[in-house]
Design a protein that fits this description.
By secondary structure, this protein is an alpha/beta fold. Helices cover 31% and strands 24% of the residues. It is built from 17 helices and 20 strands.
């Protein structure tokens, strides 16, 4: 029996003809979107398609839009996020909004504090309730711990737990798994399915195809601020979904089987160690050694907490006295003593926490891209040769297919994928010999990923050596010439390209390998 439109339940949220402009530029062009009780509605599209703008309208961040917004069948227009929260809409944005200097419990109850007599906050009750929320979310931390001391993945789960703890009829999740481990992702999916069974509505934004087809009841696609269409997963196979999103066929992260790096190593690292930031005597990286040649991509793999990111930060010189060991760059001693020295010598790091460690969202595109290369464009008096700087940045961002209103636009106003391209352009403008890439495609759409894959192939063809961390196994296997796997901070296996597989990498990452290496150069 077919359900007619009149028999469908009243949507929790319904948006009709939504238009939104920033100055003279319209970014949403008459978009229709609704979420029904008890469904997961995936909102898909490339970065810059208008997804974040639409959910900011739904969650009260933007109130100056045209069109009709209904909540529970009633017309609504939110003036601020608190109004949307009171209306039963909980939003988890891609960028974290925790207060690092506050405890986990205080963050969970921020804006909805539990009070006792005389209006005083009942900290004991909040702490007990916070412990229950953390247990439900699978978070192994103390309610009294400072949120800023948690790793990025735990901060992400805390943000999710805070939103899900509210009695919301609609939960909006924007790239919620971008920093989560597999176990944390499974915990989140279980919570989402439980919310759906309770009749809640879920708006889910992700660039991971497997998540879309695992969770979605319906899929709505935006492109360039316009509605492409809405369909159920069985009527929208992955190839068609990609065409809806990007309007073109895409290249894939194909294995580079025609590339065989040779010659002396560009970077050699020997007996690298990194001390724990707060636990005396504990090492997070222990006796890690490897070499990577020019024109080669070395994959660095491991589970959450395995020390992969710390390895790259140590090489770059960002961890100071916590790091020890030896390194050589093109045969010469490389002291790993600081970011400025590393960049000057041609070793550049792209971090996995762009917002906190490198994005500089208030800077213009041109200033952000040239930030690490100002000496190149400065004369004896320190004055920047602006015309030369602009020409260099313009040429590089064009190669990256950067979608920005102008080079003078603030980076923070760009979509996530274009922010990522801006940061990568900064790395390339520094003319690196070695690129240390920590999750270069995290949280970006399939089109931007295809662009970055193409760029990486061009970089290694030019002789740049790359050390790559990525949590996407298919990406790791396709792009890497060799893979070094860490387990609890120590080398577990080194896999040659022909010997690498998902099972082999995962087994080594979990410490299940029987041999020290499985191929490749020592």
């Amino acid at each position: 029996m077919t359900t007619t439109p009149a028999e469908l339940p009243v949507p929790i949220v319904s948006a009709r003809g939504i238009r939104k402009a920033f100055g003279p530029v319209e970014v949403l062009h008459g978009v229709d979107f609704d979420v029904r009780p008890g469904e997961v509605h995936v909102l898909a599209g490339e970065n810059g398609a208008g997804k974040s703008t639409l959910i900011k309208i739904l969650s009260g961040v933007y109130g100056d839009f045209s069109g009709e917004l209904r909540v529970g069948g009633r017309p609504r227009r939110f003036g601020r996020p608190a109004d949307a929260a009171r209306a039963g809409i909980a939003t988890i944005h891609q960028e974290l909004s925790l207060v690092p200097s506050m405890t986990v419990a205080d963050n969970l109850f921020l804006g909805r504090e539990t009070t006792g007599r005389f209006g005083r906050v009942d900290f004991a009750r909040q702490t007990a309730e916070a412990a229950r929320i953390l247990a439900d979310a699978g978070l192994e931390c103390s309610p009294r711990q400072l949120a800023g001391d948690l790793p990025i993945s735990s901060q992400q789960m805390l943000e999710i737990a805070r939103a899900l703890a509210r009695d919301a009829s609609l939960v909006i999740l924007d790239e919620p798994t971008s920093a989560l481990s597999d176990r944390e992702t499974e915990t989140l999916f279980a919570r989402i399915l439980a919310l759906r069974a309770q009749g809640r509505g879920i708006v889910y934004i992700t660039h991971r195809m497997e998540e879309i087809y695992r969770l979605a009841d319906r899929i709505t696609v935006l492109r360039d601020g316009r509605l492409v269409g809405t369909a159920t997963p069985d009527r929208l196979p992955p190839a068609e979904l990609v065409r809806w999103m990007v309007g073109r066929e895409l290249g894939r992260a194909e294995a580079r089987r025609d590339v065989r790096a040779s010659g002396p190593p560009a970077l050699e690292v020997t007996a690298l160690r990194v001390a724990h930031a707060s636990v005396p005597g504990r090492l997070v990286v222990e006796d890690v050694s490897f070499a990577v040649a020019r024109g080669e991509i070395l994959g660095l793999a491991g589970l959450q907490g395995s020390g992969t990111s710390e390895t790259l930060h140590a090489i770059f010189g960002a961890l100071g006295r916590r790091a020890s060991g030896r390194a050589r760059l093109d045969g010469e001693r490389f002291p790993m003593r600081g970011a400025r020295d590393s960049i000057a010598r041609g070793v550049v790091l792209l971090t996995n926490d762009r917002k906190a460690l490198g994005l500089a969202p208030e800077l213009s595109v041109i200033d952000s891209v040239s930030l690490a290369s100002l000496a190149r464009f400065s004369g004896a008096g320190g004055w920047v040769r602006r015309a030369e700087e602009r020409a260099a940045v313009a040429g590089l961002t064009a190669a990256f297919r950067l979608n920005a209103p102008s080079l003078d636009a603030p980076v923070g106003a760009l979509s996530g994928g274009n922010q990522q391209k801006t940061y990568l352009a900064r790395c390339l403008l520094a003319k690196p010999r070695v690129l240390l890439l920590d999750e270069p495609t995290r949280g970006i759409d399939v089109g931007a990923k295809a662009d970055i894959y193409e760029l990486m192939r061009a970089w290694v063809a030019e002789g740049i050596a790359i050390v790559l961390i990525t949590s996407e196994m298919d990406e790791l296997l396709a792009l890497s010439d060799r893979i070094l796997v860490l387990h609890r901070g120590r080398p577990a296996a080194e896999l040659a390209r022909d010997a690498a597989s998902k099972d082999a990498v995962l087994a080594a990452a979990m410490g299940h390998t029987a041999t020290g290496t499985a191929g490749g150069r020592p």
